[in-house]
Amino acid sequence: MASSGKMPLAIDAIEPTKRMLSFQGLAELAHREYQSGDFEAAERHCMQLWRQEPDNTGVLLLLSSIHFQCRRLDRSAHFSTLAIKQNPMLAEAYSNLGNVYKERGQLQEAIEHYRHALRLKPDFIDGYINLAAALVAAGDMEGAVQAYVSALQYNPDLYCVRSDLGNLLKALGRLEEAKVWKMLARSLRNT
Question: Per its UniProt entry, which superkingdom is the organism in (predicted)?
């Protein structure tokens, strides 16, 4: 009996699905390893993913973050830059690059990258937190206060941001404001 040719087509249709599931499973594993601090395993799995999909911005961002955590700043910047080339609207990549600049002591470049990330994604909480830290390091305390307040406008339930804002206001001698923010932070922690 002659083959109709349909069987190979059915198998061909299954293969991309299996590849996608294995890619997704490996990506989830790499994220779990990263979150648990196993950066070596996370990097190994991300490199496998990157070889399969070199333009996948999620993989590029994770590789950037892994290398940053391992203090391989050049590699972190490299993967952030690749992510930006793939998607110039990717706020997280600019923020990651800002982290590299901040770590290198290039505060003005860091601040510019954080601000660019926030222009792209105004509700990017980590961008405000990173910007505030860079502004404090650069001596712009009022700018840092504004960055924290902006983050809280998007998510008023952030204990760490409220606490950091309270500490910053206290350092600036704005004790009454600091007390209010610290009190609000404590109430969040206790709920």
Answer: Eukaryota
How does DSSP classify residue 5?
A: S
148-183 residue pLDDT tens: 999 999 998 888 999 899 999 999 999 888 877 777
Which one is predicted more confidently, 15 or 176? 176
Structure tokens at 67: 């290398």
DSSP helix/strand/coil, 104:
coil
Residue 115: exposure state from Cβ atoms within 10 A (0-12, 13-18, ≥19): middle
Q: Which amino acid is at 88?
A: P
Q: Which residue segments constitute the domains of the chain, with CATH numbers given? A: 21-88 (1.25.40.10)
**Residue range 117-151, pLDDT digits in tens:** 999 999 999 999 999 999 999 999 999 999 999 99
Percent of the chain surpassing pLDDT 90 = 73
CA distance 169 to 15: 58
Q: How far apart are CA 61 and CA 126, in angstroms?
A: 14
Q: What is the distance between the alpha carbons of residues 191 and 183, in angstroms, rounded to a whole number? A: 13
Q: Return the amino acid letter for 70.
A: C
| Contact indicator for 147, 153 with CB cutoff of 8 Å | no
Residue 49 · residue 56 · CB < 8 Å: yes
Report pTM.
0.82
Report the residue count for the chain: 191
